[in-house]
Amino acid sequence: MRPLILALAVCFVLKEVQGWGYKNGILHNSIWLEQAAGVYHRESRKGRYQLTFKEAKAVCKYEGGNLATYEQLEAARQIGFHVCSAGWFDKGRVGYPIVKAGANCGFGKIGIIDYGYRLNKSERWDVYCYNPDAKECGGVHTDPRKVLNTPGYPEEYQDEQICYWHIRVQYGQRVRLHFLDFDIEDDTACLSDYLEIYDSYDDVSGFAGRFCGDELPEDFISTGNVMTLKFMSDSSVTAGGFQLEYIAMDSDLLNETII
Ligand SMILES: *[C@@H]1O[C@H](CO)[C@@H](O)[C@H](O)[C@H]1NC(C)=O
Ligand SMILES: *[C@@H]1O[C@H](CO)[C@@H](O)[C@H](O)[C@H]1NC(C)=O
Ligand SMILES: [Ca+2]
């Protein structure tokens, strides 16, 4: 019993420590959880559902951002941003983005679960912020051909990044990924930092692989006209990052070597 309790206690302390850290030279007073298309979710350092509306606004401002608007939250949701925690967003509204229906989250519904404009701004929730500086990370891409890379490339990526790239080419075409450079913190199960490929419009279904280390992954071709890439880095140790090119391919050209 004792060692288990001790392990749990150590775990808890580590978690607390990770809640604080320097990012872009600023000491963060809340926990960086998830981010998509410039929208990210934060909870108070004290835990879940601890922020009044005023405090929520301050959390976003502190990091150079603002409360997300409903439209920004919905845009992020459409590229796979799924968080099961109600938070303040623009104009004192509260809700959360749900991509995949579940019994324990969102009452089985999909979309922005909207608690409406709160009359009592002293209620305590989490918060959804929008930071235009985070835009370079991920996003929706509909060009037939494009080079994508980790934020800041060719500089090393930073700790605690979460990026979703949603690629959508013309109906009837497929997406071919070709890696040009690849260097992500290495560990055996890619638990620290990783790139995940989903043969799907979101990161809920169609999982096709998780990659880390410095070996170039092989080309990957989608079955349909959409693909989702998710990059995550944890709170320590960075690396060179990756650069890849995607190309929209007509299905009848698939057997040709284009790259
Ligand atoms: C507003 O919400 C806070 C926190 O839940 C509560 O303590 C307070 O009584 C509420 N005020 C009113 C007027 O309902
Ligand atoms: C690609 O080549 C395989 C055999 O090498 C063939 O069975 C398949 O039909 C070809 N696909 C297309 C789209 O031409
Ligand atoms: Ca790392």
Automatic annotation (TrEMBL):
Write the protein's name: Tumor necrosis factor-inducible gene 6 protein
| Disulfide-linked positions | C60-C129, C84-C105
> According to the UniProt entry, where is the signal peptide?
1-19
Q: Please name the GO terms of the biological process aspect recorded for this protein, alphabetically.
A: cell adhesion; negative regulation of inflammatory response
GO CC annotations? extracellular space
Annotated ranges, domain CUB: 137-249
Link domain span: 38-131
Assembly and interaction partners: Interacts (via Link domain) with inter-alpha-inhibitor (I-alpha-I) component bikunin. Interacts with ITIH2/HC2; this interaction is required for transesterification of the HC to hyaluronan. Interacts (via Link and CUB domains) with ITIH1. Chondroitin sulfate may be required for the stability of the complex. Interacts (via Link domain) with various C-X-C and C-C chemokines including PF4, CXCL8, CXCL11, CXCL12, CCL2, CCL7, CCL19, CCL21, and CCL27; this interaction interferes with chemokine binding to glycosaminoglycans.
Q: Which InterPro entries match?
A: C-type_lectin-like/link_sf (IPR016186), CTDL_fold (IPR016187), CUB_dom (IPR000859), Link_dom (IPR000538), Sperma_CUB_dom_sf (IPR035914), Spermadhesin-Link_domain (IPR052129)
* CDD domains hit by this protein: CUB, Link_domain_TSG_6_like
Key word Hydrolase present in the record? Answer: yes
Name the keywords, alphabetized.
Cell adhesion, Disulfide bond, Hydrolase, Signal
State the superkingdom. Eukaryota
Q: Name one GO molecular function term.
A: hydrolase activity
